[in-house]
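Ligand: zinc ion. Inputs:
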Amino acid sequence: MKAVVYHGPFDVSVETVEDPKIEAANDAIVRITSANICGSDLHPYEGRVEFEPGSVFGHENMGVVEEVGPGVNRVQVGDRVSVPFNLACGTCRNCTEGFTSACLRANPSGQPGAGYGYPMMGPYRGGQAEYLRVPWADFNLLELPKGGEHELDFTMLSDIFPTGFHGTELAQVSAGNTVAIWGAGPVGLMAAHSAAIRGASQVFVVDFEPDRLKLVERFGATPVDASNSDPVEAIIELTDGFGVDCGVEAVGYQAHDPAGEEHPAMVMDGLIAAVRATGRIGVVGVYEPQDPGAATDAAKEGRYAFDFGTAFTKGLSIGTGQCPVKKYNRQLRDLIIRDIATPGLIVSHELGLDEAPRAYDQFDKRVDGWTKVVLHPAG
Ligand SMILES: NC(=O)c1ccc[n+]([C@@H]2O[C@H](COP(=O)([O-])OP(=O)(O)OC[C@H]3O[C@@H](n4cnc5c(N)ncnc54)[C@H](O)[C@@H]3O)[C@@H](O)[C@H]2O)c1
Ligand SMILES: [Zn+2]
Ligand SMILES: [Zn+2]
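Predicted complex:
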Protein backbone atom coordinates (compact mmCIF):
# COMPACT_ATOMS: atom_id res chain seq x y z
CA MET A 1 0.00 0.00 0.00
CA LYS A 2 0.99 3.65 -0.25
CA ALA A 3 1.92 5.60 2.89
CA VAL A 4 3.51 8.89 4.03
CA VAL A 5 6.99 7.94 5.25
CA TYR A 6 9.26 10.10 7.43
CA HIS A 7 12.97 10.18 6.47
CA GLY A 8 14.36 13.05 8.51
CA PRO A 9 13.61 16.70 9.29
CA PHE A 10 11.55 18.33 6.51
CA ASP A 11 11.75 15.13 4.47
CA VAL A 12 8.68 12.97 3.89
CA SER A 13 7.69 11.00 0.81
CA VAL A 14 4.88 8.78 -0.36
CA GLU A 15 6.09 5.22 -0.77
CA THR A 16 4.94 1.67 -1.07
CA VAL A 17 5.18 -0.16 2.27
CA GLU A 18 4.00 -3.57 3.41
CA ASP A 19 0.23 -3.88 3.91
CA PRO A 20 -0.81 -4.14 7.56
CA LYS A 21 -2.06 -7.56 8.69
CA ILE A 22 -4.14 -8.88 11.55
CA GLU A 23 -1.42 -9.61 14.16
CA ALA A 24 -3.56 -10.28 17.21
CA ALA A 25 -7.10 -11.61 17.74
CA ASN A 26 -8.46 -8.17 18.70
CA ASP A 27 -7.04 -6.30 15.68
CA ALA A 28 -8.97 -4.70 12.87
CA ILE A 29 -7.71 -3.34 9.57
CA VAL A 30 -9.30 -0.03 8.55
CA ARG A 31 -9.32 1.24 4.96
CA ILE A 32 -8.58 4.93 5.44
CA THR A 33 -10.98 7.40 3.84
CA SER A 34 -9.60 10.51 5.60
CA ALA A 35 -6.35 11.12 7.50
CA ASN A 36 -5.52 14.64 8.66
CA ILE A 37 -2.19 16.35 9.10
CA CYS A 38 -1.93 17.75 12.63
CA GLY A 39 0.03 20.58 14.24
CA SER A 40 1.54 17.82 16.39
CA ASP A 41 2.98 16.14 13.27
CA LEU A 42 5.04 19.28 12.71
CA HIS A 43 7.08 18.70 15.89
CA PRO A 44 8.74 15.54 14.49
CA TYR A 45 8.58 16.89 10.92
CA GLU A 46 10.78 19.81 12.02
CA GLY A 47 13.09 17.47 13.94
CA ARG A 48 12.03 18.96 17.27
CA VAL A 49 11.14 15.48 18.53
CA GLU A 50 13.18 12.47 17.45
CA PHE A 51 11.28 10.16 15.08
CA GLU A 52 12.59 6.89 13.65
CA PRO A 53 13.29 7.27 9.89
CA GLY A 54 11.00 4.95 7.96
CA SER A 55 8.05 5.59 10.28
CA VAL A 56 4.61 6.17 8.76
CA PHE A 57 2.89 9.37 9.92
CA GLY A 58 -0.75 9.83 10.85
CA HIS A 59 -2.76 9.78 14.08
CA GLU A 60 -5.99 11.48 12.89
CA ASN A 61 -7.68 8.64 11.07
CA MET A 62 -11.08 7.49 9.91
CA GLY A 63 -12.31 4.94 7.43
CA VAL A 64 -14.17 1.69 6.84
CA VAL A 65 -13.40 -1.62 8.55
CA GLU A 66 -11.88 -3.98 5.99
CA GLU A 67 -11.03 -7.01 8.12
CA VAL A 68 -11.32 -8.08 11.76
CA GLY A 69 -9.46 -10.61 13.90
CA PRO A 70 -11.24 -13.61 15.48
CA GLY A 71 -11.54 -11.83 18.87
CA VAL A 72 -13.43 -8.82 17.48
CA ASN A 73 -17.21 -9.13 17.89
CA ARG A 74 -18.69 -5.63 18.20
CA VAL A 75 -17.09 -3.93 15.23
CA GLN A 76 -17.94 -5.46 11.85
CA VAL A 77 -16.47 -5.44 8.38
CA GLY A 78 -18.03 -2.52 6.49
CA ASP A 79 -18.51 -0.32 9.58
CA ARG A 80 -17.56 3.33 9.11
CA VAL A 81 -15.38 4.29 12.05
CA SER A 82 -13.37 7.06 13.68
CA VAL A 83 -10.03 5.98 15.19
CA PRO A 84 -9.11 7.92 18.38
CA PHE A 85 -5.47 9.02 18.33
CA ASN A 86 -4.98 7.36 21.72
CA LEU A 87 -4.38 3.66 21.22
CA ALA A 88 -5.55 1.96 24.41
CA CYS A 89 -6.05 -1.54 25.83
CA GLY A 90 -9.37 -0.83 27.54
CA THR A 91 -8.66 -2.93 30.62
CA CYS A 92 -5.73 -1.38 32.52
CA ARG A 93 -6.25 0.80 35.57
CA ASN A 94 -6.05 4.08 33.66
CA CYS A 95 -8.26 2.89 30.78
CA THR A 96 -10.97 1.64 33.15
CA GLU A 97 -10.99 5.07 34.79
CA GLY A 98 -11.44 6.75 31.38
CA PHE A 99 -7.86 7.90 30.89
CA THR A 100 -7.16 6.17 27.59
CA SER A 101 -4.51 8.86 27.04
CA ALA A 102 -2.46 7.18 29.75
CA CYS A 103 -3.03 3.49 28.93
CA LEU A 104 -0.52 1.41 30.88
CA ARG A 105 -0.34 -1.53 28.48
CA ALA A 106 -0.35 -0.27 24.91
CA ASN A 107 3.10 1.34 24.87
CA PRO A 108 5.91 -1.25 25.17
CA SER A 109 8.37 1.48 26.22
CA GLY A 110 6.55 1.65 29.55
CA GLN A 111 5.53 5.27 29.05
CA PRO A 112 1.80 5.72 29.77
CA GLY A 113 -0.15 6.40 26.58
CA ALA A 114 0.24 5.11 23.02
CA GLY A 115 -0.74 6.27 19.57
CA TYR A 116 -0.36 5.80 15.84
CA GLY A 117 2.55 7.13 13.81
CA TYR A 118 4.06 9.30 16.52
CA PRO A 119 7.39 9.44 18.39
CA MET A 120 7.48 7.73 21.79
CA MET A 121 3.90 6.47 21.35
CA GLY A 122 4.82 2.87 20.61
CA PRO A 123 5.65 0.85 17.48
CA TYR A 124 2.32 1.50 15.74
CA ARG A 125 2.19 2.69 12.16
CA GLY A 126 0.22 5.81 11.28
CA GLY A 127 -2.80 6.14 9.05
CA GLN A 128 -1.58 8.59 6.40
CA ALA A 129 -1.76 5.49 4.27
CA GLU A 130 -4.28 3.32 2.50
CA TYR A 131 -4.77 0.97 5.45
CA LEU A 132 -4.25 1.02 9.23
CA ARG A 133 -4.02 -1.74 11.82
CA VAL A 134 -6.05 -0.93 14.93
CA PRO A 135 -5.32 -3.05 18.04
CA TRP A 136 -8.13 -3.69 20.60
CA ALA A 137 -10.54 -2.66 17.86
CA ASP A 138 -13.78 -3.26 19.79
CA PHE A 139 -12.59 -0.86 22.47
CA ASN A 140 -10.91 1.78 20.32
CA LEU A 141 -13.17 2.26 17.31
CA LEU A 142 -16.13 4.66 17.32
CA GLU A 143 -18.88 3.76 14.90
CA LEU A 144 -20.24 6.42 12.57
CA PRO A 145 -23.35 6.53 10.38
CA LYS A 146 -22.64 4.70 7.12
CA GLY A 147 -22.20 6.58 3.86
CA GLY A 148 -20.24 9.69 3.06
CA GLU A 149 -22.12 12.35 4.98
CA HIS A 150 -20.26 14.70 7.37
CA GLU A 151 -16.88 13.19 6.37
CA LEU A 152 -14.99 16.43 7.11
CA ASP A 153 -16.76 16.87 10.44
CA PHE A 154 -16.35 13.26 11.56
CA THR A 155 -12.66 13.22 10.64
CA MET A 156 -12.09 15.83 13.38
CA LEU A 157 -13.31 13.31 16.01
CA SER A 158 -10.01 11.39 16.08
CA ASP A 159 -8.12 14.24 17.73
CA ILE A 160 -8.61 17.96 17.45
CA PHE A 161 -12.34 18.33 18.19
CA PRO A 162 -12.10 16.22 21.37
CA THR A 163 -8.78 17.93 22.19
CA GLY A 164 -10.29 21.41 21.90
CA PHE A 165 -13.22 20.19 23.98
CA HIS A 166 -10.79 18.72 26.54
CA GLY A 167 -9.19 22.17 26.86
CA THR A 168 -12.57 23.60 27.82
CA GLU A 169 -13.24 20.65 30.15
CA LEU A 170 -9.92 21.18 31.96
CA ALA A 171 -10.83 24.88 32.22
CA GLN A 172 -14.34 23.87 33.43
CA VAL A 173 -16.14 26.14 30.98
CA SER A 174 -19.82 26.34 31.86
CA ALA A 175 -22.83 28.46 30.91
CA GLY A 176 -22.16 32.18 31.05
CA ASN A 177 -18.39 31.89 31.52
CA THR A 178 -15.94 34.09 29.67
CA VAL A 179 -13.09 32.26 27.91
CA ALA A 180 -9.75 33.25 26.37
CA ILE A 181 -7.97 30.82 24.07
CA TRP A 182 -4.39 31.30 22.92
CA GLY A 183 -3.77 29.86 19.45
CA ALA A 184 -6.16 29.97 16.48
CA GLY A 185 -4.77 26.79 14.94
CA PRO A 186 -7.13 23.85 14.53
CA VAL A 187 -7.01 22.98 18.24
CA GLY A 188 -7.70 26.55 19.37
CA LEU A 189 -10.57 26.88 16.90
CA MET A 190 -12.06 23.62 18.18
CA ALA A 191 -11.72 24.93 21.74
CA ALA A 192 -13.63 28.06 20.67
CA HIS A 193 -16.33 25.91 19.05
CA SER A 194 -16.54 23.79 22.22
CA ALA A 195 -16.71 26.83 24.53
CA ALA A 196 -19.66 28.18 22.53
CA ILE A 197 -21.40 24.77 22.64
CA ARG A 198 -20.93 24.76 26.43
CA GLY A 199 -22.69 28.13 26.71
CA ALA A 200 -19.82 30.58 27.20
CA SER A 201 -20.94 34.23 27.13
CA GLN A 202 -17.74 35.57 25.53
CA VAL A 203 -14.97 33.67 23.73
CA PHE A 204 -11.69 35.32 22.67
CA VAL A 205 -9.04 33.70 20.51
CA VAL A 206 -5.52 35.16 20.36
CA ASP A 207 -3.19 34.69 17.37
CA PHE A 208 -1.44 36.82 14.76
CA GLU A 209 -2.05 34.84 11.57
CA PRO A 210 -4.72 36.80 9.64
CA ASP A 211 -6.23 33.77 7.88
CA ARG A 212 -6.63 31.95 11.17
CA LEU A 213 -8.08 34.99 12.95
CA LYS A 214 -10.67 35.18 10.20
CA LEU A 215 -11.79 31.63 10.98
CA VAL A 216 -12.31 32.58 14.64
CA GLU A 217 -15.37 34.59 13.64
CA ARG A 218 -16.85 31.58 11.83
CA PHE A 219 -17.12 29.91 15.22
CA GLY A 220 -18.82 32.91 16.78
CA ALA A 221 -15.77 34.00 18.80
CA THR A 222 -13.89 37.32 18.99
CA PRO A 223 -10.44 37.35 17.35
CA VAL A 224 -7.67 39.11 19.29
CA ASP A 225 -4.81 40.08 17.01
CA ALA A 226 -1.53 39.96 18.94
CA SER A 227 0.58 41.17 16.02
CA ASN A 228 1.00 44.73 17.25
CA SER A 229 -0.86 45.07 20.52
CA ASP A 230 -0.93 43.34 23.90
CA PRO A 231 -3.64 40.63 23.85
CA VAL A 232 -3.90 40.61 27.67
CA GLU A 233 -4.76 44.32 27.76
CA ALA A 234 -7.37 43.80 25.05
CA ILE A 235 -9.01 40.89 26.89
CA ILE A 236 -9.03 42.71 30.25
CA GLU A 237 -10.66 45.70 28.56
CA LEU A 238 -13.27 43.59 26.76
CA THR A 239 -14.24 41.96 30.08
CA ASP A 240 -14.75 45.31 31.85
CA GLY A 241 -11.41 45.08 33.64
CA PHE A 242 -12.22 41.72 35.22
CA GLY A 243 -10.35 39.18 33.11
CA VAL A 244 -11.80 35.89 31.88
CA ASP A 245 -13.10 32.98 33.97
CA CYS A 246 -11.38 30.34 31.86
CA GLY A 247 -8.28 30.09 29.68
CA VAL A 248 -7.17 27.50 27.13
CA GLU A 249 -3.57 27.03 25.97
CA ALA A 250 -3.69 25.78 22.35
CA VAL A 251 -0.22 26.82 21.16
CA GLY A 252 2.40 24.66 22.90
CA TYR A 253 6.13 24.84 23.51
CA GLN A 254 6.99 26.54 20.22
CA ALA A 255 5.11 29.71 21.24
CA HIS A 256 6.68 32.65 19.48
CA ASP A 257 6.32 36.37 18.99
CA PRO A 258 4.89 37.81 15.76
CA ALA A 259 8.43 38.02 14.34
CA GLY A 260 8.86 34.27 14.82
CA GLU A 261 11.25 34.32 17.78
CA GLU A 262 10.39 31.61 20.30
CA HIS A 263 9.57 32.39 23.94
CA PRO A 264 8.40 29.09 25.41
CA ALA A 265 6.66 30.65 28.46
CA MET A 266 4.93 33.58 26.78
CA VAL A 267 1.54 31.94 26.28
CA MET A 268 1.31 30.64 29.84
CA ASP A 269 2.30 34.11 31.06
CA GLY A 270 -0.47 35.66 28.94
CA LEU A 271 -3.08 33.23 30.24
CA ILE A 272 -2.05 33.73 33.86
CA ALA A 273 -2.40 37.48 33.39
CA ALA A 274 -5.73 37.34 31.53
CA VAL A 275 -7.59 34.81 33.72
CA ARG A 276 -9.25 36.29 36.82
CA ALA A 277 -8.19 35.26 40.33
CA THR A 278 -9.45 31.70 41.14
CA GLY A 279 -10.09 31.06 37.44
CA ARG A 280 -9.06 27.95 35.53
CA ILE A 281 -6.65 27.16 32.70
CA GLY A 282 -6.65 24.07 30.45
CA VAL A 283 -3.32 23.38 28.74
CA VAL A 284 -3.69 21.16 25.67
CA GLY A 285 -0.84 22.72 23.69
CA VAL A 286 2.07 20.28 23.99
CA TYR A 287 5.13 20.88 26.20
CA GLU A 288 8.01 18.43 25.94
CA PRO A 289 10.28 16.96 28.65
CA GLN A 290 13.21 17.35 26.23
CA ASP A 291 13.58 19.75 23.32
CA PRO A 292 17.16 20.11 22.08
CA GLY A 293 15.98 22.82 19.67
CA ALA A 294 14.46 25.02 22.40
CA ALA A 295 15.17 28.73 22.67
CA THR A 296 16.33 28.59 26.31
CA ASP A 297 18.60 26.17 28.19
CA ALA A 298 15.85 25.49 30.72
CA ALA A 299 13.30 24.63 28.01
CA LYS A 300 15.82 22.22 26.45
CA GLU A 301 15.22 20.14 29.59
CA GLY A 302 11.49 20.70 29.69
CA ARG A 303 11.64 23.44 32.34
CA TYR A 304 9.31 26.22 31.34
CA ALA A 305 9.79 29.40 33.36
CA PHE A 306 6.25 30.79 33.42
CA ASP A 307 4.85 33.09 36.09
CA PHE A 308 3.95 30.46 38.67
CA GLY A 309 4.14 33.02 41.49
CA THR A 310 1.25 35.02 40.05
CA ALA A 311 -0.66 31.83 39.23
CA PHE A 312 -0.38 30.79 42.87
CA THR A 313 -1.25 34.22 44.22
CA LYS A 314 -4.35 34.30 42.02
CA GLY A 315 -5.29 30.78 43.11
CA LEU A 316 -5.52 29.52 39.52
CA SER A 317 -6.25 25.89 38.71
CA ILE A 318 -4.21 24.53 35.81
CA GLY A 319 -5.04 21.24 34.08
CA THR A 320 -2.78 19.68 31.44
CA GLY A 321 -2.23 16.74 29.18
CA GLN A 322 -3.15 14.64 26.20
CA CYS A 323 -6.84 14.35 25.47
CA PRO A 324 -8.54 11.04 26.34
CA VAL A 325 -10.52 11.08 23.09
CA LYS A 326 -12.95 8.31 24.03
CA LYS A 327 -14.26 10.41 26.92
CA TYR A 328 -15.85 12.82 24.44
CA ASN A 329 -15.96 11.45 20.89
CA ARG A 330 -19.37 9.74 21.09
CA GLN A 331 -21.08 12.88 22.40
CA LEU A 332 -19.30 15.13 19.89
CA ARG A 333 -20.26 12.74 17.07
CA ASP A 334 -23.91 13.13 18.07
CA LEU A 335 -23.61 16.93 18.07
CA ILE A 336 -22.35 16.64 14.47
CA ILE A 337 -25.19 14.31 13.46
CA ARG A 338 -27.71 16.83 14.88
CA ASP A 339 -26.00 19.75 13.07
CA ILE A 340 -25.08 21.46 16.36
CA ALA A 341 -21.33 21.07 15.77
CA THR A 342 -19.57 21.73 12.46
CA PRO A 343 -15.84 21.16 13.12
CA GLY A 344 -15.20 20.52 9.40
CA LEU A 345 -15.45 24.27 8.81
CA ILE A 346 -11.71 24.54 9.50
CA VAL A 347 -10.66 22.34 6.58
CA SER A 348 -8.72 24.32 4.00
CA HIS A 349 -7.39 21.50 1.78
CA GLU A 350 -8.57 18.05 0.73
CA LEU A 351 -5.75 16.27 -1.11
CA GLY A 352 -4.71 12.85 -2.34
CA LEU A 353 -1.95 11.00 -0.50
CA ASP A 354 0.58 11.86 -3.22
CA GLU A 355 0.31 15.51 -2.32
CA ALA A 356 1.31 14.94 1.31
CA PRO A 357 4.94 16.19 0.94
CA ARG A 358 3.75 19.51 -0.48
CA ALA A 359 1.04 19.72 2.19
CA TYR A 360 3.58 19.20 5.00
CA ASP A 361 5.80 21.89 3.53
CA GLN A 362 3.05 24.48 3.11
CA PHE A 363 1.31 23.73 6.43
CA ASP A 364 4.64 23.87 8.26
CA LYS A 365 5.50 27.24 6.70
CA ARG A 366 2.05 28.52 7.75
CA VAL A 367 1.47 29.60 4.17
CA ASP A 368 -1.64 31.75 4.10
CA GLY A 369 -4.79 29.66 3.91
CA TRP A 370 -3.28 26.30 4.96
CA THR A 371 -5.23 25.77 8.18
CA LYS A 372 -6.13 22.07 8.08
CA VAL A 373 -5.25 19.43 5.53
CA VAL A 374 -7.29 16.25 5.06
CA LEU A 375 -5.70 13.50 2.98
CA HIS A 376 -7.98 11.09 1.12
CA PRO A 377 -5.88 8.02 0.20
CA ALA A 378 -8.53 6.73 -2.19
CA GLY A 379 -8.56 10.11 -3.97
N1 LIG B 1 -3.20 17.64 24.22
C1 LIG B 1 -3.49 16.95 23.13
O1 LIG B 1 -4.06 15.85 23.21
C2 LIG B 1 -3.17 17.52 21.78
C3 LIG B 1 -3.75 16.99 20.62
C4 LIG B 1 -3.51 17.62 19.40
C5 LIG B 1 -2.66 18.70 19.33
N2 LIG B 1 -2.08 19.16 20.47
C6 LIG B 1 -1.19 20.33 20.48
O2 LIG B 1 -1.96 21.51 20.44
C7 LIG B 1 -1.16 22.58 19.91
C8 LIG B 1 -1.92 23.27 18.80
O3 LIG B 1 -2.17 22.38 17.74
P1 LIG B 1 -2.62 22.91 16.31
O4 LIG B 1 -2.82 21.73 15.43
O5 LIG B 1 -3.73 23.89 16.46
O6 LIG B 1 -1.24 23.63 15.91
P2 LIG B 1 -0.84 24.83 14.96
O7 LIG B 1 0.63 24.84 15.01
O8 LIG B 1 -1.54 24.69 13.65
O9 LIG B 1 -1.44 26.14 15.67
C9 LIG B 1 -0.78 26.85 16.67
C10 LIG B 1 -1.18 28.32 16.54
O10 LIG B 1 -0.58 29.04 17.61
C11 LIG B 1 -0.22 30.32 17.12
N3 LIG B 1 0.75 30.94 18.02
C12 LIG B 1 2.09 30.73 18.12
N4 LIG B 1 2.62 31.52 19.07
C13 LIG B 1 1.59 32.24 19.59
C14 LIG B 1 1.50 33.24 20.59
N5 LIG B 1 2.58 33.64 21.27
N6 LIG B 1 0.29 33.79 20.86
C15 LIG B 1 -0.82 33.40 20.18
N7 LIG B 1 -0.80 32.46 19.20
C16 LIG B 1 0.40 31.88 18.92
C17 LIG B 1 0.28 30.06 15.71
O11 LIG B 1 0.25 31.23 14.92
C18 LIG B 1 -0.70 28.98 15.24
O12 LIG B 1 -1.81 29.54 14.56
C19 LIG B 1 0.15 21.92 19.46
O13 LIG B 1 1.10 22.06 20.50
C20 LIG B 1 -0.25 20.46 19.32
O14 LIG B 1 0.86 19.59 19.46
C21 LIG B 1 -2.33 18.59 21.68
ZN1 LIG C 1 -3.42 15.48 16.00
ZN1 LIG D 1 -5.04 0.53 29.01
